[in-house]
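User: Good morning. I'm curious how iron/sulfur cluster would be positioned relative to this chain. Could you predict the structure with it bound?
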Amino acid sequence: MNKSPFISKTKYIAGIQCHKLLWHYYNAKEEFQEVDAGTQSLFDQGHLVGEYAKKRYPTGIEVSEDIIAFEKVIEQSKQLISKRLPLFEAAFRYKNAYARADILNPAGRKAWEIIEVKSSTQVKDIHLYDLSLQWYTYKGTGLEIKRCYLLHINNEYVRKGEIDPGKLFALEDITSDVKILLPEVEGRLEKMIKVIAAKKYPKIEIGLHCNDPYECPLQEKCFDYLPRHNPLTLYYFKGEKAFSLINDGVTDILKFDDSITLSAKQKIQIQSLRSKREYVNKEGIQSFLNKLAYPLYYLDFETIGTAIPLFDHVKPYQQIPFQFSLHIQASPKSKLEHIGYLAEGKDDPRPELLKLLKKHLGMKGSIVTYNASFEKDKLNKACEAFPAYREWNRKIQARIVDLLDPFKAFYYYNYKQEGSASIKSVLPVLTGKGYDGMEIADGGTASNEYLRVTYGEGVTEKERKTVRKYLEEYCELDTMAMVKIVEKLIKISNGKVDYS
Ligand code: SF4
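Assistant: Good morning! Here's the predicted structure, ligand included:
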């Protein structure tokens, strides 16, 4: 370990989250889980957001891209200060603190204001800690800091033509909140230095902080001792209660005693696990099946939602459907028909998607989705943007049925679901088939891969085609899974499967 380590804002934030995490940053970073594609995509979006933020300050100077040679960057920052122009990533060191402000903006004749750019749509507590370290560092080096701001994404912005950096962001003055934290910075840094210098990491219990403010990259290591059926796997039990039991040594839900208050569903989960049997409420299943009217339309969307809207009439992070899979079953005995759509090109996929849906969803029959609020919302938003479909959408919405309902209600529960009602958990236990072996096996990856091969650079045509094939396979499996689940529910309700 470095004898005189710097604590940058990333490390300071890590130290605010957990001292054990901080220790690993300096002493055993190799133990961190690899950054997954979803996190990488967030980093990439953050970088793009940063680029748009800089456009608000056209006279701004990029101090240096070379993060490794920090002494050089510090030197260059000192020299550029005299220019009295906005500086991007100006770096300063004071004692053990090292900070690079996204934007250091001149205020009046001598002072400066710190502007931190974030991809979030609001100020979060962790941003205040971040800014307090920056303020402390700059002030320590002799800069006069007047105010500090968070420049975050304005979620009311609607793209019309070219992105307008003036409207894409909201500038919030957080000076007074950051000032409250300033007196704590030095003490926190001193404690952090001691943690970093220790031979062994501090003993810290797992808890809510493992996901707050960020998902900790050491979870695999820290959660490793938990048995498979631990309190975190209990349906809607996550949170303080689960961690408090775990840290009191109650790590196995099979060892819960009567003093622990559980909901009816949680009791079913434990009972099913204990007996290794499914729980079936045939009346409940029948009541769900009674809602289904043929023809059945099994529908699933995949979506993208970017911080910088890709199309006109779209807000930041608005989820835009780019793909659907539709399995149609005209009657209980008829063959399945499949229709898939995956947007080609870089234009807004919604006009074509809506046109095809209108063509194929017919005038009557249930539209079966899994977690219907998602599909309902995407349709509503798409039809708001394309008003010609509003009346059609009103009728479509009334036909949507949620296949998640019987599982959320625990009309069927299998201990192998491990407290989850998601389609990925339900499909294998009901049909013996699952998503294993799929190149794309979750919505997040589908979204990232579509963005990458559609809008990214350096993707070959061969790779693009391959990824599109994977996307088609994945989305089709989602609707086929729903078909199979409904088939199984029908068999259970008919008493053809002995589950009791
Ligand atoms: S998983 Fe939790 S306890 Fe472990 S290092 Fe991360 S935040 Fe700390």
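The chain has a mean pLDDT of 94. The pocket of iron/sulfur cluster is lined by residues 17-18, 20-21, 204, 206, 209-210, 216, 218-219, 222 (CB under 6 Å).
Let me know if you'd like a different ligand tried.
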